[in-house]
Every structure is written in C-alpha cells, then in structure tokens.
Write a structure and sequence with these properties.
It comes from Colletotrichum fructicola (strain Nara gc5). The chain is of the alpha+beta class. It is globular and about 85 Å long.
C-alpha cells in the first residue's frame, strides 16, 4: 500500500483489519491493529471447529487479488489506500452495517512493499488461518448464473448420492458426516435438468472460477476451521457444495460439461485430462480438510450462525452443515490415504503432509508470482518450518527452485521429482536453461507421467542414490544408472487439431490405424522377435497399453489385444461397426470357436473397447511416440530424438530418456520418463550389474 505508514511488527506479531460498518455503497474505512499471534493460538487450541465470537476474534479472508487495471480505495487511519477492484467488492460484501468486522486480509495486513516482513508473515500463515474464527472465501460476483448453479450443485448430490448405484459414494459421505445421508428428495426437488441443459454449463463455469485455481487457497481452505463461501449476494457453507465432487465417477461422470479457460465447452480431447483436474480440485481440498479434522484438529459444527455483510443475503441465516471428516476412501491427486497422513501422532494434523507431496499433488494450480508455488504451501507442509525453505522474495524463481529442489532431494521418495521433470516438458517455448532434473512449476501441467500410468519397478529393489558435487555447479545432480539402449528410430502419431472428447473411441481408433501404417514401413517388423520372446506387434501392443491389465492382478490376453488391433485397422473410415464387411474374417474366426454371429459381434466390440480404453487413458495425456532402439520398443515423451539414450537410474521406478548435453561436456539432460517393454520389472538391473555415475544438469 504505497503511501501508508505501517507500524513495524515484532517477530510473532500480525495485523488485523477492523473494517468499519457501513452500507454496501458507502466508502470503505478501517483501521489496522497490531496483535501478537500466540494468544490466538492458545485460545484456538481449546476449541474444535469454528471459534466462538469474541471482541478479539477475527475472520480470515480468502480471495483472488485480481487486476490492478481499475484500482479502487479504502481509507485506513485517514490515509486513502489503493486496492484492487476484486478486493474492494469483497470487502463491501463482508462489511457489516451495525458494527466493525475484524478481518485478516493479506493485501492490507501485510506490508507488501517490505520484502522482509512479507517473508516473515508467510511463515506465520499457518497460525493465522488456524487461529481465525473461520475463513470467508470470496469467489467473486454473481455471473453466468452462479447463484442458481450453487443451488443445483447441492441438489445434484442430494439426489444422486442416495441412488443405490452410488452405494460407495454414499457410504463414504455417511462416514464423513458421521450420520446417515438423507434419502433423496421427491417431487420437484428430485428433478434435475437433462444433460446438455444450459444450467449445467453454469455449474461448470462456477467450478471454473479463478478462486478454485489459486495456489494460495490450498492452505487457506485446508487450514480454516470453517469456510463460508460468498458469491455475490449468496453465501453457503463449503460443505453444501463439496459432496457433489464425491460422486464424480459414480456411476458416471456428472452432467456438467468440461470447459476451457474461456468458459466454453471443451471440444478437444487433447485437453480432456487437464480439465478433469478442474473437477477434482475441490474434492481434493475437501478430502484433505477431512483428514486433518479426523485427527481432532477442527471440524464444522452441524449448525452455524452466519454473519453476512450488507451485500451478502442481508442477515443471519442458519444452515445445516455437513461434517467434513473423511476417511478418504478414494484416491485424491493420484495419492492414497497414506500419503496424506503422518506417522507421528504428536504432529499437528493440519501439517501432516510433506512439502514434496504437496508440490506434486497441486501442480495444476496457478500463481501470479511463480515463487509462490513453493511459498504458498509452506504453512500446510509438515516440514514447512525448515530454515532451508524460508521464503525469499529477493530471489529469482530459478534460484528459489534450485534451493528448494536441492533440499527436497534429501527427503524420502525424492526420486518422484524426477518423474515430473525433463526437457520434454519445456516444449511450450520456455527457454531451456532450467535444470532438467527439476519440475518447472510455472508450466501448466496437463500430462501424466509413466510412473503415474504404469505399475513398474524398473530399478528393482535398489535404493535411490544421488549427490551434489561441491566442486561442480549447483545445478548438477549426480545419479547412478545403467544405460540399456539408444533410440534408433522414432514413430510419432501426430495429434489432430480437434480431437473431439465426445468421440474418444473414434479418435483412438484413428490413432491405432495411423500407427499400423507406420509399423508396416519398419523393415522386418512383421517377422521380428522381441527380447521377451514376443513378436514385434505383440511388444508394441503391450507398450501401447503399458502392459496394464483389465482388472487388478489380471493380464489382458494377448489374443484379445491382437483381435482388437485387427478390428481397429480393418476399416479406414471412422467406424466401429462390427457388421462391416471388412470385419467378416474376424467374425468367422470367432464363430468357428462355437460362438453365434451375435456373440461374435459382441466379442469384437468388447475386445476393441479394451484396447481403446487402455490407449485413451495414456494418449489423452501423453503423446503417442514409439521409439525403436537396438533391443527394445518404448513409449517416450514427445521431443525425444534418435540418438537419445534409455537409462535405468538406481532406485527409480520408470526408465529415463537422457540426452548428451550440447553445452556442457560430460553432462546429460533428462528428456523424460519412458515405458520400455521388457525392462519395467527390474530386468535391466539383475544381480551383478554395474551402475555408472551420471551427471545431470
């Protein structure tokens, strides 16, 4: 706040904004009060859930700063202070008419011009949010039918979850609530709009609001004792919306469509997996809140007496709230329950997750300042108080990333950082000077990794081995590995400009057909015998599907995959009709085995769907690039080249593609992880193998 004279803070002090009462259209006024945080922490430790209101209690505000293009103002102690339009409207919404409201608002309560204070206050964020009476989450003003969308979201889960087909979701929610889920409403309340109705598009646009994407809301939401969500004049408890995210795939995806950043329906299947993260983000946040509350840190009461400002519904309102304690019965952010829970029972349950796990779990969030990808999670991280992780806004992002990265490699499971790194991830135009062994969190993450998609132990039971040479540059990571092959030939299947998400089967079928034509041009491919004893085609099919089974512990028969491959390649046009004449030979083969014509058609479609489902899962997130080496066939990241090397690094689950550095002799760069059929279960590191040192920059 340029021009405002801030009072200096002590090491454990923070500021509270006392927002003066007023009507919605009156000018904003307030005072900043300096308080020590420790008495608030002591008082908070005596209570579960929302803290009782007192003369000293305060509420934290979670919001999106927004653009400075049209600055507004608030008067603080007779000084006019510039604030963003979004914060201006937010404060008008939460202001009370009859008495001051005590708030913690980062843009005003922290001297943003003082880097030292900023850094110190970031380290207090955990205490600030845990000690607040509750958090007010301002999502923005009414737009795109958001008020009706919020009502529809709640109605959707109250109708859908009691459905007998949703038994798993219902059991999970009942366990979370600690009480039975009410039976589904009847009559008009039970009627939901038809799929395709424009009201579902309003729901998608509500979930797509900027607030849900901010990196800072991760700790603001999870640490809060309760969260009141404010959207224009409408306010609801977070627990009135969150249960809708539980039933994302039970029994099928929800009726609201996937949309892009502009709020338009997604037409490109290339963006499908990225937009699925949009649906799951709020689920993940709620599930993590629940895990902490199970351990007794806090919980939402069944009923709250909500205070609303002049612009928020105009008075007190009671809502029956859903508890949010969760056993986390399904995966969140590609991690199991164990990843969220600490083994130390004496730890703060709100800080039971290591920074490394948080960074990898919340890669799809956004930050105006890229350094905040690290700093914004410290208040939530079990190791967030480490001196090596202190925020430093005088550093460039690259310096922050390197400092944090070198420290994170000393944490358990640090090899997972490598799974998300590599220069293949820099193909969006960013300068290629970032260490290839670190994920670049500035880059939108729309891809899964081989480690995500394939259950593998390429390095067997070896332990991860790394180091940093004090005599070398700071950006050089020392690893040990075994070189297993060199890429001799690349076979890429290009992506179409528009890959329609509503026709994924046709899209994947076209990919397989294109691939078949590429394979036909490889000399001797049909007669080749793979190192596993399989034919070349069998090896390719296993590679395309990451050798994954139809059911857990069950391998998909090769005969099924080959039948599906022949089904997809028998017809040039976009067609999956089993009765096409081109598929007569396939039908007759099945009929000769004693099946009827109808059963033969069903078997063809079922086989094709197995292959299509396997390829779609990886193809929608990974580029379909087959690499043929001297010994192996692999699925590798787009951006690999002939001459790149395939390595298995000690202690790492997936093989890596490395490239000799063109700038620094003797060093290599990580291109990315790969699926290499025949070495995914430790075959390359059998007893007696010699690991050699590899220097990565």
């Amino acid at each position: 706040m340029a021009g405002f004279d801030y009072t200096a803070l002590g090491e454990r002090d923070f500021r509270i904004l006392s927002l003066a009462p007023g009507k919605f259209d009156e000018p904003l006024k307030g005072e900043l009060i300096v308080r020590p945080i420790d008495p608030y922490i002591d008082e908070a430790s005596k209570h579960d859930g929302e803290l009782p209101e007192s003369a000293d209690s305060y509420e934290a505000v979670s919001y999106v700063w927004g653009s400075n293009d049209t600055p507004r103002s608030i008067t603080i102690s007779s000084t006019e202070v510039s604030i963003t339009e979004n914060l201006f409207t937010c404060l008008k919404r939460v202001r009370l008419q009859d008495r001051p409201r005590q708030l913690w608002v980062d843009a005003l309560c922290i001297n943003q011009a003082n880097a030292d204070e900023k850094q110190a206050q970031v380290m207090l964020m955990h205490d600030v949010y845990v000690s607040a009476r509750r958090t007010l989450a301002y999502l923005g003003e009414e737009a795109d039918g958001s008020s009706d969308a919020m009502d529809l979201i709640e109605r959707y889960w109250r109708v859908s979850i009691p459905n007998e087909l949703n038994a798993g979701a219902r059991a999970f929610l009942e366990d979370s609530l600690g009480k039975p889920v009410p039976d589904a409403p009847t009559g008009a309340e039970a009627e939901l709009p038809a799929e395709g109705d424009k009201r579902w598009l309003a729901v998608s646009r509500f979930w797509n609001r900027a607030w849900f994407k901010r990196v800072w809301i991760v700790q603001e939401f999870i640490l809060a004792r309760d969260v009141l969500m404010i959207c224009g004049e409408k306010t609801v408890s977070w627990a009135q919306l969150w249960p809708a995210t539980i039933a994302l795939e039970e029994p099928e995806s929800p009726p609201w469509p996937l949309i892009d950043e502009k709020g338009e329906e997604v037409e490109s299947a290339a963006d499908l997996m990225a937009n699925m993260a949009q649906r799951l983000r709020f689920y993940q946040l709620g599930a993590m809140r629940g895990n902490a509350q199970e351990d007794g840190c806090c919980g939402d009461d069944d009923e709250h007496d909500h205070e609303h400002g002049d612009g928020c519904c105009g008075g007190d309102d009671e809502h029956e709230h859903d508890h949010d304690g969760h056993d986390h019965g399904k995966e969140a952010a590609e991690g199991s329950e164990e990843e969220w829970e600490s083994e130390d029972e004496d730890e703060d349950p709100k800080r039971s997750t290591e920074l490394l796990s948080l960074l990898l779990s919340f890669r799809e969030v956004e930050a105006a300042d890229p350094r905040d990808y690290y700093f914004a999670l410290l208040g939530l991280a079990a190791d967030g108080d480490r001196e090596e992780f202190r925020p430093d806004y005088s550093e460039k992002f690259e310096e922050t990333a390197l400092r944090f990265g070198r420290t994170l490699f000393h944490e358990p499971f640090s090899e997972e950082l490598l799974d998300h790194a590599g220069i293949a991830e820099h193909l969006n135009g960013r300068a290629n000077k970032f260490p290839s062994w670190l994920p670049d969190f500035r880059r939108p993450w729309h891809r899964m990794t081989v480690a995500d998609a394939a259950e593998s132990e390429a390095a067997g039971e070896t332990d991860f081995d790394f180091g940093f040479d004090p005599n070398d540059d700071e950006d050089v990571l020392l690893l040990k590995g075994v070189k297993v092959d060199t890429i001799a030939q690349m076979s890429g299947v290009p992506r179409a400009a528009h890959l329609h998400a509503d026709r994924p089967s046709i899209w994947v079928k076209k990919d397989i057909l294109t691939l078949s034509k590429i394979l036909e041009k490889i000399p001797g491919f049909e007669k080749a015998t793979y190192s596993t004893g399989e034919s070349g085609l069998e090896a390719v099919l296993r590679t395309l599907t990451f050798f994954r089974a139809e059911a857990e512990e069950e391998e998909v028969p090769m005969a099924t995959l080959k039948l599906a491959y022949r089904f997809c390649t028998a017809v040039e046009e976009d067609d999956l009709d089993p009765e096409r004449a081109e598929r007569d030979v396939l039908r007759r083969e099945i009929e000769l085995a004693g099946r009827s014509a109808e059963e033969a058609n069903e078997a063809l479609v079922a086989a094709a769907q197995i292959l299509i489902n396997r390829v779609f899962t990886t193809r929608s997130a990974l580029d379909l690039v087959l690499a043929k080496g001297e010994k192996y066939v692999a699925m590798v990241p787009d951006g690999c080249e002939a001459g790149d090397e395939v390595w298995v690094m000690k202690g790492c689950n997936a093989p890596f593609v490395l490239r000799k550095s063109a700038e620094r002799e003797g060093l290599r760069r990580i291109v990315g992880t790969a699926y290499v059929h025949g070495i995914m279960d430790g075959e390359a590191v059998e007893e007696g193998v010699e690991f050699e040192p590899v220097s990565i920059h």
